[in-house]
Design goal:
Elements lengths: L1 E3 L13 E2 L2 H6 L6 E9 L5 H7 L1 E4 L5 E10 L24 H5 L31 E4 L2 E2 L3 H27 L2 H9 L8 E4 H7 L5 H22 L10
Antiparallel strand pairs: 1-6, 2-5, 3-5, 3-8, 4-5, 6-7
Bound molecules: iron/sulfur cluster (2 copies).
One iron/sulfur cluster binds next to loops.
């Protein structure tokens, strides 16, 4: 079956969190407020194998296993636009935008055969899925796949660093396992958020100081806006 899709540049998918590769996160450190977002999945989920492959797995006290997605993320509240979104709803960094934005609406943490459902626009999105739009997915395969393959390759290559971070955090943050277990109890996949600084420390990033300096003004500005307008200032981060 053929699936059609074309972006009409409404900018609606440029609100809220933007999952990033490690490389994209660091190269946009002066623009995005960064955090690490952990999303646990129970066994039986169709994304389980891919998430376990690109993230990590943990075993809970009740011996059940979870797959956990660990993603460097532009941590922006759902009602807030990406800092790179212009007033005309166009991306101000189009030629340099993160891989995640190039691959949208496809999602490389999901097996390719299940990507068709991501082509259904969410409420308020004006993506063109009529037959006049190009065919982008056919016979369970992505047609124009350069960006998807590039993002998937980047996620594969960065996996040793993600695994090292997971091992470090699970060893030195005993409450993390409980937080992940609690997150799986929510109807919609819950998240646990950890700081960029813990990632820089765990992975012994040689550019940690420079990245932290780039983040400072971004975090100061965002924190002021978040606490003034939303309740995110009261949200508990794990570390
Ligand atoms: S970087 Fe550009 S395309 Fe990506 S979310 Fe921000 S405005 Fe949208
Ligand atoms: S919601 Fe759809 S139409 Fe709007 S910017 Fe995103 S991909 Fe394009």
């Amino acid at each position: 079956m053929a699936h059609h899709f074309e972006c009409t540049a409404c900018g609606k998918c440029c609100y809220g969190q933007v999952p990033l590769t490690i490389s994209d996160a660091f190269s946009h450190a002066a623009r995005f407020p960064l955090a690490l977002v952990w999303t646990p999945l129970r066994q039986g989920s169709k994304d389980y194998a891919m998430v376990a492959h690109l993230g990590t797995t943990v075993r809970l006290a009740n011996r059940k296993e979870l797959a956990v997605l660990i993603v460097p993320t532009a941590y922006i509240p759902p009602a807030f636009p990406c800092p790179a979104l212009n007033a005309d709803n166009l991306c101000s960094i189009h030629s340099n935008k993160p891989l995640r934005c190039r691959t949208m609406p496809f999602y490389p943490y999901r097996d390719e055969q299940f990507q068709a459902e991501l082509l259904t626009p969410r409420e308020g999105w004006t993506c063109d899925t009529s037959e006049s739009a190009p065919v982008v997915f056919h016979d369970k395969k992505i047609v124009f796949r350069e960006d998807f393959d590039q993002e998937r390759d980047a996620l594969e290559q960065q996996h040793p660093l993600i695994q090292r971070y997971a091992d470090y955090m699970l060893k030195y943050t005993p409450q993390l396992l409980d937080s992940l277990a609690k997150a799986t109890l929510k109807a919609k996949a819950g998240q646990v958020v950890t700081s960029l600084s813990s990632f820089l420390t765990a992975t012994r990033n040689p550019d940690a100081k420079q990245i932290a300096q780039q983040q400072l003004p971004v975090l100061r500005l965002r924190w002021l806006i978040f606490t003034a307008i939303t309740r995110i200032g009261r949200k508990k981060w794990l570390i």
